[in-house]
Amino acid sequence: MVKIGNLEVGEFPLLLAPMEDVSDPPFRAVCKENGADMMYTEFISSEGLIRDAAKSVEKLDIYDYERPIGIQIFGDKIDSMRQAAAIAEEANPEIIDINYGCPVKKVACKGAGAGILLDIPKMQEMTAEIVKAVDKPVTVKTRLGWDDSTIRIVEVAKRLQDVGIQALTIHGRTRKQMYKGVADWTKIAEVKNHPDIHIPIFGNGDIDSPEKAVEYKEKYGVDGIMIGRAAIGYPWIFNEIKHFMETGEHLAPPTLEERVSVAKRHLEFSVEWKGERKGIFEMRRHYTNYFRGIPNFKPYRTRLVESDSFEELSGILAEVSEVFSDVVPVV
Ligand SMILES: Cc1cc2nc3c(=O)[nH]c(=O)nc-3n(C[C@H](O)[C@H](O)[C@H](O)COP(=O)(O)O)c2cc1C
């Protein structure tokens, strides 16, 4: 059983990655229903939280059915991060997670996210302060290093473990790689298999099929896998991986009816939670995957991503359900 502090998270947990404008309550709801063992909020600005900015505070919304859940925070100032962790803790998640991996210029070049990989002593001090500031277990998500010449992930893991983090997720890319190239899981395995490391190590990067999940689990020995992009518009990936791990066989892919019904609920919740304009806009990136493998779907996808009316979208989804009722998606 993998434990984060005292929290049991399953034999081999599958985690939904924190993703900005994606890992929100509507999307988390459908991932949870489809097998995600543990989830994180998208990253939340520590400065936003301490200034009580509505945009940051609303990201603290969590629901009981989502548990266990981690709230992820980011920032470059130790004092703000300490205070933000305490604010996040009041929202009552199971875990406080620190983002030391974001590669985006406006974050990383200010020394937050992956930027802190250039200052490991500060990273350790910030983490120590956060661990001291909260009672809940603190976890970290990071990358291998800033670039190829600064990969010190084993040292990072040891130093963060020393100051009390309870699990570490490693995305097998450097900041410089952004999302390009392939994730290097051998470096993740180096951390996992290091004799001094005893906290759970979760691997992240490029898992997009049950086969790959099983292969990487066996090859790299990690304690669990975090999935990001492959879950966008395809929350079924969690149960598909679980089923394949347990039986060696593939779960039948979701039927058209299931796809329409999950997309519809996701859209409804998005609009309810974020309002019509933002809810519709942020839903757009999910449609391609929701309707993957359906021949001649393109004109419908175009209509789905171009419409800005909830009523119209509900009509298009109903039409999809009728027009493609006999189609078995080819995945
Ligand atoms: C749209 C998008 C938003 C992301 N936002 C965050 C974030 O808020 N916090 C974070 O730690 N990582 C974030 N990431 C990185 C993912 O959590 C993950 O590490 C990365 O996508 C690699 O995993 P994957 O290959 O399974 O997608 C984001 C990734 C994407 C694609």
How many beta-strand runs? Answer: 11
What is the N-to-C succession of helices and strands? EEEHEEHHEHEHHEHEHEHEHHHHHH
Instruction: Report the bound ligands by name, code or SMILES.
Output: flavin mononucleotide
Instruction: Determine the CATH topology of the largest domain.
Output: TIM Barrel
Q: What structural category arises from helix and sheet content? A: alpha/beta
Strands ordered across the widest β-sheet:
3-4-6-7-8-9-10-11
In whole angstroms, the N-to-C terminal distance is 33 Å
User: How many domains would you count in the coordinates?
Assistant: 2
Question: How much helix, percentage-wise, in residues?
Answer: 40-55%
Q: Per the principal axes of the C-alpha atoms, what is the gross shape? A: globular
The second-level CATH architecture of the largest domain is Alpha-Beta Barrel
**Cα Rg:** 20 Å
Give the C-level CATH assignment of the largest domain: Alpha Beta
InterPro entries: Aldolase_TIM (IPR013785), DUS-like_FMN-bd (IPR035587), DUS_fam (IPR001269), DusB-like (IPR004652), tRNA-dHydroUridine_Synthase_C (IPR024036), tRNA_hU_synthase_CS (IPR018517)
EC number: 1.3.1.-
Protein name: tRNA-dihydrouridine synthase
Enzyme class: oxidoreductase
Describe this protein's structure.
The chain is an alpha/beta fold and 331 residues long. It has 2 domains: 246 residues, TIM Barrel (Alpha-Beta Barrel), CATH 3.20.20.70; 68 residues, Orthogonal Bundle (Non-ribosomal Peptide Synthetase Peptidyl Carrier Protein, Chain A), CATH 1.10.1200. Helix content is 43%, strand content 13%. The protein has 15 helices and 11 strands. The strands form 2 sheets. An 8-stranded parallel β-barrel has the order 3-4-6-7-8-9-10-11, surrounded by 5 helices. Strands 1-2 form a two-stranded antiparallel ribbon. β6, α4 and β7 form a beta-alpha-beta unit. The longest helix has 19 residues. The two termini are 33 Å apart. The site of flavin mononucleotide has 21 residues, from loops.
